[in-house]
Structures are given as C-alpha cells and as structure tokens.
Design goal:
The chain is an alpha/beta fold. The protein folds into two domains: 6-78 and 115-193, 3-Layer(aba) Sandwich (Rossmann fold); 199-298. It is built from 16 helices and nine strands. The strands form three sheets. A five-stranded parallel sheet has the order 2-5-8-1-9. Strands 3-4 form a two-stranded antiparallel ribbon. Strand 6 (154-157) and strand 7 (161-164) form a beta hairpin. Helix 10 crosses helix 11, helix 10 (199-209) packs across helix 12 (239-251) and helix 11 (215-229) crosses helix 16 (284-298). The radius of gyration is 24 Å and the shape is elongated. The two termini are 39 Å apart.
Amino acid sequence: MIPASIAETSALLAAQGYLADRQLATAVHLALAMPRPLFLEGEPGTGKTEIAKVLAAGLGRRLVRLQCYDGLDLAASAYEWDHAGQLMAIRLGEASGRREGLAANIYSSEFLLRRPLLSAIDPDLPPAVLLIDELDRADEPFEAFLLELLGDFQLSIPQFGVVRAREKPVVVLTSNRTREVHDAIRRRCLYHWVDYPDAAREAAILRIKAPGLEAKLSAEVVAFVQRVRGAEIFKPPGVAETIDWALALAALDQRELDAEMVEDTLGVLLKYQDDITALQAAGLAARVAQAKSEARLAL
C-alpha cells in the first residue's frame, strides 16, 4: 500500500533502516503518490541506490535492477529473442510437417527473454520497483530508448506488439553525475539531489547500522568523517565508508580515536592513495584532536 503522507513515507523508509531528511521523504512520497519516476543525483556513497532497495522491501514489491554501463543495449536492458529456442522450434516444425503459422509461433511470449525493463512492466508478473542505476554511465542512445518506458510505461516489440504495465512500477533512476543526463529524461521525473548527511543524521545512521558501537567512538568517527569531507580530496567518504570504518575500529577493540589507529585504517575510509597522502600531509593528528573535541560537545 502506498503511504498516505510524507510522515508515513518517512516511517516506511525508517522501518527498513533508511533515515531520510524531510526533503528526500517528500520527493519519495510524491513519486509514489503521483506516480512519477524519481531521479536521484548525488555523489557516490550517499545512499541513492539504497532508496530503491528499501522501497521494494517496505512496499512488498520485487526489486528489478538495471545496472547501466557504456554500450548498454536493448538486448541487455529490455528484451531479446531466444534464438536457439526459435531455431529448435523451426526444425521440429519442419520435421513434423507443420509449417503453417510457424513464423508467428516463434515470435510468441514463449521465446521472449525478459530483461529488467520488460520484466518491470510485464503485466503477468507482480508489481515491481525498477531501479535504473547509474544512468550517467550509459550512452545517450539508451536514454532515447527509455523515453517510451518512462512516459507511457510500455515497450513496443517488433513481431510481438506493445507490452503495457497493468500496474505502474515504482521507478528510481540514479546518477553520480559523471555526465549530464538529457533534459527529456529529467522532464519525465521528479528530481532530488541526495547530499551527504549532516553530523546528527550520520550519527543516527550509525546507531542503526552499528548498534553495538561505543557512543564515544561513534561520535568521534562522525566528527572526523565530517571534517574529512571538507578537505581537499578527490573522493570524500560516503555513508557506507563511515559505517565500514566504524565497524573496523570496533573490530580492533577501539573505544576512541587515536592518530596512530586512524592512520593505520585510513584505507577503509578512503579509496584513493592520493587522498590518503593528502590527508596525512595536512596533519592527521590535529584533525583527530579536533574531531575528539567536537565529539565531546556532541555527547
């Protein structure tokens, strides 16, 4: 059942372990209520993909995921024909002398291989949440193909006909903005920029995702990560990296941050050596001390 209000939508996400701010909960609610595809942009690691997963779990729908990449085509994204099965059917038909209607039979549902886009709107399958992940990695011709699906929730298949959704899927598109997505796609969607969480929300996320974490360590981890995101580095850590780092420190029996342990575990938090080197050069001990001071005020 679709939530009746923004508060219910926020509660649905929270019940699956996703803490959304008011603006994001509003965008998700409108996408469900109108209904319209939801286009989420933001830095990697800010939780865009996770939204589709928790919606599928919360709404009791199957999750259909299309991971985009350069060169993604119709056969991999929507459908293709089972050519081996068609050839076998032709040979069996010829061997038995049943040639009449053979061409029509081989372009039937039996030989249609459903890829994610077709699966999401197939009227014979249960309702879905369709995740079109990292659309910016696909090329522009693929975006043009998406327009029919996002506009009318249907696909036109030569030799077969038009497949229309009986119940529209919930559609979530994500982009890390490695390139601009075409305006025609944007116009068909509701839009929201998913940013890194502030300190209070990141601390709340840690309480959910790492419930056994010491309160002091959790506060210091959040304060340090918030400072790292403000540094001049190539790839700031996402929420997933914050959680992984906190769990790694806990696994090492840390109850609070110290500069030596932070330096030893920076590879959990940062994924580029240049970023690790830059942070070390900027004075790691001073950043740790500042984070510990901020954490004391937060506790």
